[in-house]
Amino acid sequence: MIRIEEIVEKVGGNYPQADLDLLRRAYFFSAREHKGQTRASGEPYLVHPLEVANILAEMRLDEVSVATGLLHDVVEDTLVDLETIDRYFGTEIAHLVDGLTKIAQVSHTSRTSPEEQQAENVRKMLLAMVTDVRVVLVKLADRLHNMRTLAHLKPEKRQRIAKETEDIYAPIAHRLGMGKLRGELEDLSFQHLHPEEYRHLAAQLAARRSEHEAFLQRTTTRIEEQLREAEIPVVRVEGRVKRLYSIWKKLKRQKIELDQVYDLVAARIITPNEVRHCYAALGVIHNTWRPVPGRIKDWIATPRDNLYQSLHTSVIGSEGQPFEVQIRTEEMDETAEEGVAAHWKYKEGTRGAHADDEALQSLKRTLVEWTQDVKDSRDFLESLKLDLYPKDVYAFTPMGKVIQLPRGATTVDFAYAIHSEVGDACTGARINNRMVALRTPIQNGDVVEIITSSNAHPSRDWLNFVVTSRARNRVRHWVAEQQRTESIEIGRKLFEKEASRVGLTAKKLIGDGDGDFRRAASEYGYGRADDLLAAIGYGKLVPRNVLAKVLGTEKLTELEQRKESKIRTGMSAGVQAVKRLIRLGDESIVVRGIDAMMVTRARCCSPISGEEITGYITRGKGVVVHARRCKNVQQLMLNPERIVEVEWAGGAEGKASYAVKLLAVTENRTGMLAGITGAISDMKTQIRDAHASISSDNHGRVEVTIEVFDLKHLDKVTRSIRRVPGVLDVERVQGAA
Q1: Which of 9, 43, 62, 77 is catalytic?
Q2: Is the pLDDT of residue 190 over 90?
Q3: The pTM is what?
Q4: Are residues 335 and 60 in contact, defined by beta-carbon separation less than 8 angstroms?
Q5: What torsion, rounded to 10 degrees, do the Cα atoms 255, 256, 258, 259 define?
Q6: Known catalytic residue at 76
Q7: Is the pLDDT of residue 635 over 90?
Q8: Residues 1, 48: contact at Cβ < 8 Å?
Q9: Sign (positive/negative) of CA torsion 55, 61, 64, 68?
């Protein structure tokens, strides 16, 4: 266990004027309050705040941040309150601890889904950056130590935390420019989410370690000699092998082999803090080795929005092996590793970041925008994931302003990046003075001019090609408003028809602003009459049930009994038809909060028991249930009011079987089909159909349709197939089997 004096020594070395006694007092306070508490590993709980504080000290943060690391859990996990923290340690630390405590305090009521809990957690964390970015830095340090000790948790919890780290925390570290922390979070996530692939890739790299080390030694020595000969000053030259997670993502994304990764090994040149030395070193590298066309990137002239600056180039070594060279100054290297932590300023009497640190303030504003534009929890997380990843396309307005966008961004994304109103009014675009279609992707260096019209509005078709969350969310909002208007009108007509069936005028019932219709809306959980009508139009509510709520069941029954016998008979037959229809639904799925709704599984993804699912109310089909992995789920987010919470009925596992199609990519040799079907049979699994073919790249393709009971059963079958010699990959085929 790390000792408090080691942490004190690190902080004192970085900040000679720091109040080191504050750290010792925070340590003893934390030790006293956490006494008797243990972690899942069995070790004393105090180990965790000590390790978090040590991570913060290694980031070279001030003593207030490190003391907060020691105290970050005392309010959440002990009987200590914020007033006590304020009294003992001051308002600044109390404020930071309060921010961290609020992040952890997410509602766990039965109405709050895991996605909503996660979204609220992240939303609070980003909003905390408005007042002090140190809240997020402490939270990242907390997550890093938890990931380092994740092996002690149960598998299900381990997977959930690792996935959240991969999707949210590692990308946030990236956007804060914290490359070192981000890299460790990603590798740890990879290790726990895909243990078999992690071990396989690690073994491949271990087998080549001596080869890589020898190559890097020769290369760095050659670089040092060439730079010395050219009289270019250099602080140091380093060699490194690309991180496991980055290699794995590239192999998956590009579907290539390890030998085809250009930047598997890299050399890094660190120069003194003068930019001219970087460009001089780049010239020497290109004069020594042949550069790979299209692989030169200048992040010094145009820094990334996470403050990263460096020159990147890929060259072909004298032995024919490609490798990457990164060139940056000492300050740039520090920023690339530590990000905003490296920009932390400390002056006598002033702690924290200067208000005029424009880069940091801009980054904080960008992060907080995500929390304000999107309200739906799942949509918020999806938008966040889109915007957290690297942005590497730089284009210009006709006035010369630089607009930074994700790769693949279109002119519509560009328009929304300028301003939301420009995007909404966009009708056309010119790239480099030439008219282009709105879906045209933007390339680095393009000059883009947006043409607008006061009568224009977004188009639903834009959702098929925009890539930024700002553009997507604005278009979705407009489409949702259009659909809402339509649904209100449909709901009004349906309610009017139901009211007229019993001889009433719906207009009078709806128009009474403070009457029974408004009361009924409130009882259904809606704030306005229009919201209730929209719910009827969406198909969420049955008009007769709403009328019964407005009038009262007894009065509605009395009105119906006054009708002619023929009408009553017709209604009875209609109700019976609806009941028969409802019984045709999928009984293994339950809709939360809605009774008597027909439920069917979507044919596009055919979810199976155990998968995460979401329900979407479709006119004429009741609730259609999709798997969360389904590519069509994003389109459902256009109208979140039609999304309902669904879950697998208790005890559904094992009662029904589901047809699933799998595709196995194999080596091109005989016996593969027999081996795969044998592996499936070993799992006591029924095979409906099997077909083998040869692909254009000379690999075998075996498609099998099997019957499984749930997701665990499918995972067992998939693992069994992967163990067959010659099988390269196995994936589930989207769509009905």
Answers
A1: 77
A2: yes
A3: 0.62
A4: no
A5: 180
A6: yes
A7: no
A8: no
A9: negative
Give how far Cα 47 sits from Cα of 33, 358, 458, Å. Answer: 13, 37, 54
Going 143 to 356 to 275 to 447, the CA torsion angle's sign is: positive
Tokens matching residue 59: 């980031």
In 3D space, the residue among 411, 418, 409, 362 whose CA is nearest the CA of residue 390 turns out to be 409
Q: Which of 58, 76, 298, 496 is catalytic?
A: 76
DSSP lists the bridge partners of residue 326 as 268, 312
Q: Establish how many alpha carbons lie within 13 A of residue 187's alpha carbon, considering only the half-sphere containing its beta carbon.
A: 14
> DSSP code of 292?
P
Binning the chain into helix, strand and coil, the percentages to the nearest 5 are: 50, 15, 30
d(CA 37, CA 44): 6
Q: What is the distance, to the nearest Å, from the Cα of residue 82 to the centroid of all Cα atoms in its chain? A: 32
| The three-state (H, E, C) secondary structure of 362-430, written as one string | HHHHHHHHHHHHCCCHHHHHHHHHHHHCCCCEEEECCCCCEEEECCCCEHHHHHHHHCHHHHHCEEEEE
Of residues 588, 592, 616, the one with CA closest to residue 602:
616
Tell me which residue has tokens 């000969």. Answer: 229
Identify the residue whose tokens are 């895991």: 114
Catalytic, 263? Answer no
More confident call, 21 vs 477: 21
In this prediction, residues 243-264 reach a mean pLDDT of 82
Q: What is the pLDDT of residue 396?
A: 85
